[in-house]
Design brief:
The complex is a heterodimer. Chain A is an alpha+beta fold. Helix content of chain A is about 35%, strand content about 20%. In chain A, α3 packs antiparallel against α12. Chain A is globular. Chain B is α+β, with helices and mostly antiparallel strands. Chain B has one domain (about 5-80). The longest helix of chain B is centred in the middle third of the chain and has 13 residues, at about 50-60. The chains are: A alpha+beta, B alpha+beta. The interface between A and B is medium-sized, with 35 and 25 residues.
Chain lengths: ~550, ~100
């Protein structure tokens, strides 16, 4: 966990009081909505279909049990008893009252939680690998750099009024769980030939109306140069990024229109100029160590790789099913990372009730050194579970509905709130996801299908990351009716790709049938039982799937 | 949603109302003929011409303290006189989400 210092606490508290005054002035009419809108957005407050929506940041996806309990409190006291975990390590509350928001923010501030960087045309919540600090083979904990970036960019005047929103993601593992290639800046920690740690920098990834996979512009930036190099990128963006057309304002459009080589040269020139004029911030070791020292790690015990409790529990097929897809290798022997599915059969993806949050906080205290993680797949994780405790944890999770054994399987669906909540949406996402989880509720079938990610967005803004779903579903509106475009072959990992449209959109009532057809085609076409869906699509292209889906439609 | 400014340029195709969200709590509200707001669609002022719609919208937008994001929305008037939302989005705004909430209200 990261321990906030006095400066952090003062900043958050002052921000709450500033917003309290702004809300008061808005409600009295002293501020018009036009004047207030940017202020509320800078505090994570949107206006959705039925109410205000309040988005709270969970920087790099790390939460303490105390913080999770406080989120539960906010859900219960100010909302309708639940929260929605998003695809960017945030939580959203859907029914909050503007008049009560300052109190909710004050309650969160007491435990070091805030809503800065969750909206507006600034640098957004810095996201990272939800297994940071515990993943085997990781170069180093990427949260140290995430936190440095968070501190540097928060309220930075040059980054607060950008042409559009701006998103960072960082990973330090070979397998990318942070989806860095679909971010404005993606950073991959690695070691150079001299064994020094630095970053490969990718720019211009993003989904939405015009999706792009991020492009590498520099193979290695040393850690002490990270902030100045990032600043050079943002300066180039600030200078050349379009502000006249919201649809062309993201940095991905600038990178595409300039060309990645020219964009990289512009950044290099800017960076050189900053260095020559001695205005480039160079992090010294003490600064980095200061941040590093404020991340604390558990006092792990020396435990056996295969404890007796686990050997015994392996005889229970239900436990084994859950263990196989929810429990992952930890960097410390005798410990495991446990992913908790927020995708129960028939449930809205990513939602957790206040009661579940409270119960999970207790389990985190008992089994995971009081720590919880949030991933972009809209699931949670307990990062430090002793393997001997897995059977007991599983039983406890099952009691609170957090042991659905479908992690990374077909019913582990990522979905945006869609037209049920969102004022931008054209079509519903959640009911489609719910129907699909029912269709694929049979665990044996899901195991047979294997790893398959379905992503659903209710509009082209792509909050459900449909472009990079193995199967992507995009809601569109046609003559007042909900239709859905289907793409296949997308992926969000280190081999990120955009999916390919398989054909004309289909009506609401046919989406689940189409997905079943695609899955059946895959089962018939795959070369081997362990060839993943996305690899079969890569090998064969979309045509066999297109034929299967549209032959009878 | 079409912004009020853009809606000045368009013509309505049938009976319409002006809807918004209440400022202090965000709930869905409708402009009434009494120059007030109501959470009930049945209280909404119905406009049938573009001029009427523009006038009702202008009056609604002027109440910046009471309401946020006012816009014109289509409705259907049933033979019984009952007013129904004119599209799915407005149906959801009026009736609530189409799914069961994780915690029943």
């Amino acid at each position: 966990m990261y321990a906030y210092d006095e400066l952090d606490r003062t900043l958050i508290n002052e921000r709450v009081e500033e917003f309290r005054d702004q809300v008061k002035r808005r409600l009295s009419g002293e501020l018009t909505e036009d004047e207030f809108k940017m202020l509320r957005l800078q505090n994570g407050v949107y206006l959705q279909l039925h109410a205000y929506m309040f988005r709270v940041a969970i920087p790099y996806g790390t939460l303490s049990s105390k913080q999770l309990r406080r989120l539960a409190h906010v859900a219960r006291r100010y909302d309708r008893g639940y929260g929605h975990f998003t695809t960017r390590q945030n939580i959203q509350f859907n029914w909050i009252k503007l008049a009560e928001l300052p109190d909710a923010l004050a309650d969160l501030a007491e435990v070091g939680i805030h809503a800065m960087q969750t909206s507006g045309n600034n640098t957004r919540n810095v996201t990272s690998d939800q297994w940071a600090g515990v993943a085997p083979g990781e170069i180093e904990d990427p949260r140290i750099w995430s936190e440095l970036l968070r501190q540097y960019t928060t309220l930075h005047p040059e980054f607060s009024f950008l042409p559009r929103k701006f998103k960072f993601a960082i990973t330090a593992s070979a397998h990318d769980r942070a989806a860095i290639k679909i971010h404005d800046i993606g950073l991959r920690l690695h070691k150079n030939a001299e064994g020094e740690t630095g970053f490969e920098v990718m720019v211009g990834g993003g989904l939405g109306r015009t999706p792009f996979i991020g492009k590498p512009i520099k193979p290695y930036v040393a850690g002490h140069d990270l902030l100045s190099y990032v600043e050079a990128i943002l300066r180039v963006y600030n200078q050349y990024g379009r502000r006249d057309n919201i649809y062309k304002a993201r940095i991905k459009i600038l990178v595409h229109e300039l060309g990645v080589e020219k964009f990289a040269r512009e950044v290099e020139d800017e960076w050189q100029q900053m260095r020559d004029s001695d205005t480039a911030l160079t992090l010294d070791d003490a600064m980095i160590e200061d941040i590093r020292s404020r991340f604390t790690y558990p006092a792990y015990e020396k435990l056996p790789h295969m404890p007796e409790e686990l050997k015994q529990a392996a005889h229970d097929p239900l436990f084994e099913r859950w263990r196989k897809n929810s429990v992952f290798t930890h960097k410390v022997q005798g410990y495991a990372i446990v992913t908790l599915s927020l995708k129960p059969v028939g449930g809205p993806p990513g939602d957790a009730t206040a009661d579940q949050m409270d119960a999970l906080a207790d389990l985190a205290d008992k089994y995971s050194f009081g720590e919880i993680r949030v991933g972009h797949e809209q699931n949670l994780a307990l990062p430090h579970v002793a393997k001997r405790d897995l059977p007991a944890l599983w039983k406890a999770l099952d009691k609170i509905g957090l042991a659905t054994p479908n992690v990374n399987l077909v019913s582990d669906i990522i979905a945006c709130p869609g037209l049920d909540y969102c004022s931008l949406a054209n079509a519903r996402s959640i009911p489609i996801a719910q129907e699909l989880t029912r269709r694929f509720a049979n665990h044996d079938t899901a195991d047979l299908i294997g790893r398959l990610h379905i992503n659903i967005s209710g509009c082209i803004n792509a909050c459900g990351h449909h472009h990079v779903g193995h199967i992507g579903i995009l809601g569109v509106e046609k003559n007042g009716e909900e239709f859905y475009q289907i793409t296949i072959g997308g992926r969000a990992d280190e081999s990120a790709e955009l999916g390919t449209l398989i054909g004309p959109s289909v009506p609401y009532g046919e989406v689940a049938d189409v997905v079943e057809d695609i899955v059946e085609a895959y089962l018939a076409l795959r070369a081997r039982p362990d060839e993943l869906f996305v690899d079969t699509v890569k090998r064969l292209g979309v045509e066999p799937f297109r034929e299967r889906v549209y032959a009878t439609r | 949603m079409t912004s009020p400014l853009e809606q000045k340029k368009i013509r309505i195709a049938g009976p319409s109302v002006v809807t918004a969200n209440r400022t202090w709590d965000g709930i869905v509200i409708y402009r009434t003929a009494r120059r007030d707001w109501s959470a009930k669609l049945s209280d909404a002022a119905i406009v049938r011409t573009s001029d009427e719609a523009r006038a009702l919208l202008a009056e609604s937008v002027a109440d910046d303290v009471g309401a946020v994001g006012a816009y014109i929305a289509p409705v259907e008037i049933k033979e019984s006189g009952k007013i129904k939302p004119g599209n799915l989005r407005e149906h959801i705004r009026l009736q609530g989400v189409t799914i069961d909430l994780p915690v029943p209200a």
